[in-house]
C-alpha cells in the first residue's frame, strides 16, 4: 500500500472513530438532556400516551383522562368540578404545560417517577403505572368557600391549626382546567390570559395585598411578647388623634366616635383603632414588629405548601411615620390569605405554628405510600399566655361582628380589616376577615378571606359585611365534617 492510500485510510478511520465517539456521547450524555428539552415533542407524546394518575380529595379522584381523536397525544386531562378545585390542582395542558399540584407531581402522575418502578420495570425499562396525590382538602369546606365567594373577586384559605392541613383553598373568579387541557384549546387559553380579572392567578397564595387591620394581630402579639403592654386589658398610651411621628398628619380612625383614646388592646382590636396600633408599632420599632411578623411567616421566600406561595412582606428601611403606617397593615406591608390564615392558626393553637400543607400523601398505583406529610414541622412563636389573651380579644371582635361570624355551639375569634387600594385610595378597598373556630368535639379551623372587588357600594365595603360571612361558611363546614 503506497503512502497516499495509507494516509487516506488512516484519515477515514479517524473520521469513523470520531463519528462513533460523537454518537456515543449524544446517546449516553446528551440523550437525557435532549429528551427533557421542552421543545422535544417526544416528551409530550410520552407524557400523554397513557391515562394520568389521580389527585384525590376526600377519598375521590377529582381528575381523569380521556382518549383523544386525530392526535398523536393519546390522552388528555379531565377534571371533575374543575372550577371548584382549580386553585388546588392547577392545570395539565398538552400545549401550555402544568401548574400547581399537576406540575409539582407530574412525574408521579405520568408514571415516570423512578420510585414507581418495581425491579422488573427497571430491567425491562417498562413505564410504571402512575401514582396518585392525596390532598388534605375537605370537600365540604371547599364547596362552602366557593359558594360563599360567589361572583366576587377574592380568595379564601382554611387551615387545621393542630395539623397544618389546608382544608380549603379557593380563588375567584376561577376557571375549568378541562377547557385548556387539549391541543386545540387555544381560543379558551387566549380568553383566560386576556381576562382582566386574571382567573389563572391563584389569589389565595400568589397575590399578596395590603392586609389592613388584620395585621394588627401581629402588632398586638409583638407588644405583648415584648412586654410593652402586660395584657390586652391594660390601657395603652395612645392619644386620639395620633399624629404620625415627624409629620403634622393625624392618623384617622374609621369610626371617629369609637372609644380609641388610650384604649386597651382588646378595645382597640374590637374597634380597629388605628391610633393605638400606629403608635404601638412606632414605639416597638420596625425591627421588633418585623421579627414577630417573620415568626408568623412573613418575608419567607420559600413558603411551599407544596406549591410555592408568594412572599408576604414586612418591609425594612422605614422611618417612624412609615413604621406607624405598617402597624395598621398599610404602607408596603402585603400578605396572602394563606399568610393571614397562618396568623389565626398560630394564635388558635396556643402560640404554635404548624407548617401548612395541602398534600398528605403521595402513593403508587397500589396505594403504597411514597411520601408522607402527616408529621408537619412546627415552631412556637408565642407564649401560651399571649396566645390565650389574643384568643380572648379576637372573641370580643367576633361578638361585635355578630351573626356574620358567630357559630352556635362553637368558640369563635376573628379580626376584620379594610385595606386601602390605589393612589389616594381611589381603588375599591380590600375587605378582609381572619378568624378561628373551635367546636365542642375538639375540631378547630383557622380561616382568612379577602374580597378584592364586589358589586357592593363603596361605602358598604367592610370585612364584617363581605369577608366574614365567607369565613363563617367555611368554619361551619369544617366543624361539621
Automatic annotation (TrEMBL):
This is Penicillin-binding protein 2. It comes from the Bacteria. The lineage of its organism: Bacteria, Bacillati, Actinomycetota, Actinomycetes, Kitasatosporales. PANTHER family: PENICILLIN-BINDING PROTEIN 4B, PEPTIDOGLYCAN D,D-TRANSPEPTIDASE. One of its GO terms (molecular function) is penicillin binding. Residues 154-476 form the Penicillin-binding protein transpeptidase domain. Residues 53-126 form the Penicillin binding protein A dimerisation domain. One of its GO terms (biological process) is cell wall organization. GO terms for cellular component: plasma membrane.
Amino acid at each position: 500500500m503506497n503512502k497516499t492510500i495509507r494516509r487516506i485510510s488512516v484519515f477515514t478511520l479517524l473520521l469513523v472513530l470520531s463519528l462513533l465517539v460523537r454518537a456515543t456521547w449524544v446517546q449516553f450524555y446528551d440523550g437525557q438532556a435532549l429528551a427533557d428539552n421542552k421543545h422535544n415533542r417526544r416528551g409530550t407524546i410520552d407524557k400523554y400516551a397513557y391515562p394520568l394518575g389521580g389527585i384525590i380529595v376526600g377519598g375521590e379522584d377529582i381528575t381523569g383522562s380521556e382518549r383523544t381523536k386525530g392526535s398523536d397525544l393519546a390522552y388528555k386531562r379531565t377534571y371533575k368540578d374543575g372550577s371548584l378545585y382549580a386553585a388546588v390542582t392547577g392545570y395539565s395542558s398538552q400545549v401550555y404545560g402544568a401548574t400547581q399540584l399537576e406540575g409539582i407531581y407530574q412525574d408521579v402522575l405520568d408514571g415516570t417517577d423512578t420510585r414507581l418502578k418495581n425491579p422488573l420495570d427497571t430491567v425491562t425499562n417498562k413505564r410504571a403505572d402512575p401514582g396518585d396525590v392525596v390532598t388534605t382538602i375537605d370537600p365540604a369546606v371547599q364547596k362552602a368557600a366557593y359558594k360563599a365567594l360567589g361572583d366576587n373577586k377574592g380568595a379564601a384559605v382554611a387551615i387545621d391549626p393542630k395539623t397544618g392541613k389546608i382544608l380549603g383553598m379557593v380563588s375567584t373568579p376561577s376557571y375549568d382546567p378541562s377547557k385548556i387541557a387539549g391541543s386545540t384549546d387555544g381560543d379558551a387559553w387566549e380568553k383566560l390570559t386576556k381576562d382582566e380579572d386574571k382567573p389563572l392567578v391563584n389569589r389565595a397564595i400568589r397575590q399578596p395585598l395590603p392586609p389592613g387591620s388584620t395585621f394588627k394581630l401581629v402588632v398586638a402579639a409583638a407588644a405583648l411578647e415584648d412586654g410593652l403592654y402586660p395584657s390586652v386589658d391594660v390601657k395603652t398610651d395612645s392619644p386620639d388623634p395620633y399624629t404620625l411621628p415627624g409629620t403634622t398628619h393625624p392618623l384617622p380612625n374609621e369610626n371617629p366616635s369609637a372609644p380609641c383614646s388610650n384604649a386597651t388592646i382588646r378595645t382597640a382590636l374590637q374597634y380597629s383603632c388605628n391610633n393605638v396600633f400606629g403608635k404601638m408599632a412606632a414605639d416597638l420599632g420596625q425591627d421588633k414588629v418585623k421579627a414577630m411578623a417573620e415568626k408568623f411567616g412573613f418575608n419567607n421566600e420559600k413558603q411551599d405548601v407544596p406549591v410555592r406561595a408568594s412572599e408576604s412582606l414586612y418591609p425594612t428601611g422605614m422611618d417612624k411615620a412609615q413604621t406607624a403606617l405598617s402597624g395598621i397593615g398599610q404602607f408596603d406591608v402585603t400578605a396572602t390569605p394563606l399568610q393571614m390564615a397562618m396568623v389565626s392558626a398560630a394564635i388558635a393553637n396556643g402560640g404554635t405554628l404548624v407548617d401548612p400543607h395541602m398534600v398528605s400523601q403521595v402513593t403508587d398505583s397500589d396505594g403504597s405510600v411514597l411520601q408522607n406529610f402527616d408529621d408537619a414541622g412546627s415552631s412556637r412563636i408565642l407564649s401560651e399566655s399571649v396566645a390565650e389573651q389574643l384568643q380572648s380579644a379576637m372573641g370580643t371582635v367576633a361578638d361585635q361582628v355578630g351573626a356574620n361570624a358567630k357559630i352556635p355551639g362553637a368558640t369563635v375569634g376573628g379580626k376584620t380589616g379594610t385595606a386601602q387600594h390605589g393612589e389616594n385610595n381611589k381603588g375599591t378597598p380590600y375587605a378582609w376577615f381572619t378568624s378561628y373556630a373551635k367546636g365542642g368535639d375538639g375540631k378547630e379551623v383557622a380561616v382568612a378571606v379577602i374580597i378584592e372587588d364586589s358589586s357592593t357600594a363603596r361605602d358598604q365595603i367592610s370585612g364584617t359585611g363581605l369577608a366574614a360571612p365567607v369565613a363563617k361558611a367555611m368554619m361551619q363546614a369544617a366543624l361539621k365534617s
